[in-house]
Amino acid sequence: MKSAVRKTAIVLIWLSLIYTCYELGVWQLNRAQALNVATAPKPDQPLVALTEISSAGKNIPIKAVNRIVSATGTYSKSYIAKDQKFSEGQIADFDVRVLQLNTGHAVLVAREVLAESADILPGEVLITGRLYPRQNVDRTLAKPGQLPRIDPALVVSKENPFLYDGYIILRSEVNSSNQASNLTLIPSPQISERLPGFYWQHISYVVVWWFMGALLLIAPAFPQFRLSTQKVGDNSPKRVNKGRRVGMKK
Asked: What is the DSSP letter of 72?
């Protein structure tokens, strides 16, 4: 009875370990697929007005990040955002402007890669661009008129008490006369969601867990090696027989 219970317990533990390895592999496979989907480029949603998806003085909603937005207003202050990274790891300075909207609020606009002569359209302009969350890490030490990072909190003042969170990287700009500006536009790809790890790392974990499960599955097929030990001592047959022979001689 005890032997049957012991064998049943061993079989259950063996099957549980195999199932655990399988489920861990499935979990890592799902992580790899989720990472692949999250980092894949998504089609842009239709153009929407900035005032419809975000509010001045409040944190930018998640649904507003990466959206192509439009805004109308006039440029006021200008800044230089130093050492900004863009396509293929290149670093350059950006021309950043404060756009005063018709609503009385303002938003930061990264207009272009800084050039020697800035092309500014007169009067009111209509812009479109991709909306990004504010930068949280300083790129460099800033001097007066410069921004260490593109963050509306750095330009809040009495004249601009309420700014929209985040900033817009310009894609197009026209004035009331339908005149477009000639700018060195900044690339504005979508920001992909960041998940821990990377795709092939999770795939390698799938292989490891399923390989361990396969080893456990075929483990009973391996021969069991039993080491037989010969105990040599005073009670061994050779020593007993030797003692008897000595006694007979006497």
From this structure: E
Domain residue limits, the chain: 1-40+193-223, 48-175
Burial class from Cβ neighbours inside 10 Å (0-12, 13-18, 19+) for residue 246 reads exposed
Yes or no: domain 48-175 corresponds to CATH 1.10.1060: no
Q: How far apart are CA 148 and CA 139, in angstroms?
A: 5
pLDDT in tens, 102-131: 888 999 999 988 876 566 777 889 999 999
Tens-place pLDDT, residues 143-167: 888 899 999 999 887 677 789 999 9
CB 188 within 8 A of CB 171: yes
133, 78 Cβ separation under 8 angstroms: no
Q: Are strands 163-175 and 106-113 parallel, antiparallel or unpaired?
A: parallel
Round the average pLDDT of the chain to a whole number and report it.
81
The radius of gyration of the chain from alpha carbons, rounded to an integer in Å, stands at 36
Question: pTM for the complete prediction?
Answer: 0.64
Contact between 94 and 84 under an 8 Å Cβ cutoff? The reply is: yes
Task: Judge contact between 168 and 132, C-beta under 8 A.
Answer: yes
